[in-house]
Amino acid sequence: MTTTEERKSAASRPEVAAAAARASIAIRERSGREVPQWIRDAAEGRPTTPPAEQPGPRRPAGGPEITTTEKRTDRPAGRPLVAAAAARASIALRERTGRDVPQWIRDTAEGRPTTPPAGLS
Predict the structure, then answer these.
(1) Per-residue pLDDT tens over the stretch 85-115
(2) Hey, how many other C-beta atoms are within 10 angstroms of the C-beta on 44?
C-alpha cells in the first residue's frame, strides 16, 4: 500500500486516539502517576489540544562537562537490583529448559560482584 491509497481500517483516527488514551490512562493509574486532563478528554472523544512538548531535564548551569568516556554518577543506584532480578529470571528459564546455568549468572542473582565472560561485556 502506498501513502496515496485509501486505508482499509474499520477504526477511524478519533477511535484509535481514544483507545490509545484509554490505554495510557490505565498504565498511568496502575503505576500511580498523574493522568493529565487532556488525556482523559481524548479518551472520552472530546476535542483536545495536548500541551506543547517540554524539554527534558537540564544540567545545572556551571556544572561539570561529562565526556562519553567518563563514568556517569547520575544513574539510579537500583541497577544491581534490576540485574539480580534479570539473572533470577534467566536462571528460572534455563533450569526449566534443562540448560546449564553459569556461575556468573548465579552470582549476579545473589548480588555478588561478577565478571561475565569476555564475549558478553
Answers:
(1) 888 999 999 998 889 999 988 988 898 887 7
(2) 11
Please identify which residue in the block is written with the cell numbers 569476555: 118
Q: What is the pLDDT of residues 6-20, one digit of tens each?
A: 656 555 777 888 888
pTM: predicted TM-score of the whole model, two decimal places = 0.36
DSSP class per residue in the chain: --TTSPP--SS-HHHHHHHHHHHHHHHHHHTT----HHHHHHHTT----PPPPPPPP-PPTTPPP--TTSPPS-S-TTHHHHHHHHHHHHHHHHHHTT----HHHHHHHTT------GGG-
> Do 54 and 48 touch, CB atoms closer than 8 A?
no
Q: Return the closest-CA partner of residue 112 out of 87, 94, 93.
A: 87
